[in-house]
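Researcher: Sequence recovery benchmark, item below. Answer with residues only.
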């Protein structure tokens, strides 16, 4: 069946197998876990740990990592505000496709601007967009500095580095916040368990 969309001469093609059918096959609900936070806050670490945890439970997930996507789909984008916005928009659209495929899509990007993340939330419709805020102090992220980028940013060798001379707008209403307890960051497996518990409680881990 075909129906017209807002764009002229472009039609939406419906197929007989839908999201619900795919979800039944996978025994899970397609959704997006969107991990946001400063560079070095542990986004990729949580993404990998969560992916492993879900895999061990027989759940199908897939990671879209900012660094990795910038090697291909988004290789033409830099870090100017409009490029970051386009980066988030594209990843949001791809994540939406993965969720429609029935997967638990884990998007791991700095995604510094609230409006861009909210646009992805609106694209996915609320319950299917789970925003995870890596609420780590800048000093912790900068102290880790695994790629040496903060050092370069402090030396003025990278301009517009998030948290140094470019803004990070923390979420106002995220579903999950990962933060230090008594000055100690939870272990990667603990962070993953926190997210899996949320997904389980909300019914995403069954059809
Ligand atoms: N100017 C500037 N600001 C922030 N980050 C920078 C910059 N230049 C390069 N990098 C590296 O790019 C990684 C972030 O890419 P993202 O796609 O997640 O960024 S964004 O969401 O579009 O803001 C980020 O990776 P992570 O450390 O994994 O966050 C950095 O390694
Ligand atoms: N929960 C954690 N406890 C201790 N170290 C961590 C934790 N999460 C991440 N790290 C370390 O911090 C550094 C940055 O983590 P990473 O996942 O690459 O962050 P991001 O993807 O946000 O840039 C890495 O060296 C990683 O091993």
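Model:
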């Amino acid at each position: 069946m075909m129906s017209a969309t807002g764009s002229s001469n472009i039609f939406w093609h419906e197929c007989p197998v839908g999201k619900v059918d795919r979800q039944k096959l996978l025994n899970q609900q397609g959704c997006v876990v969107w991990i946001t936070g400063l560079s070095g806050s542990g986004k990729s670490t949580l993404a990998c740990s969560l992916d492993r945890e879900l895999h061990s439970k027989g759940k199908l997930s897939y990671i879209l990592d900012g660094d990795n996507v910038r090697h291909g789909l988004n290789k033409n984008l830099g870090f100017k505000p409009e490029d970051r916005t386009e980066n988030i928009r594209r990843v949001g659209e791809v994540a939406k496709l993965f969720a429609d495929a029935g997967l638990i899509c884990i998007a791991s990007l700095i995604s510094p601007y609230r409006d861009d993340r909210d646009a992805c939330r609106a694209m996915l419709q609320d319950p299917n967009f789970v925003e995870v805020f890596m609420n780590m102090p800048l000093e912790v992220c900068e102290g880790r500095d695994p790629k040496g980028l903060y050092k370069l940013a402090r030396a003025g060798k990278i301009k517009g580095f998030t948290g140094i001379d470019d803004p990070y707008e923390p979420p106002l209403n995220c579903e999950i916040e990962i933060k230090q307890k008594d000055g100690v960051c939870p272990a990667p497996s603990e962070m993953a368990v926190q997210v899996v518990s949320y997904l389980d409680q909300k019914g995403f881990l069954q059809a």
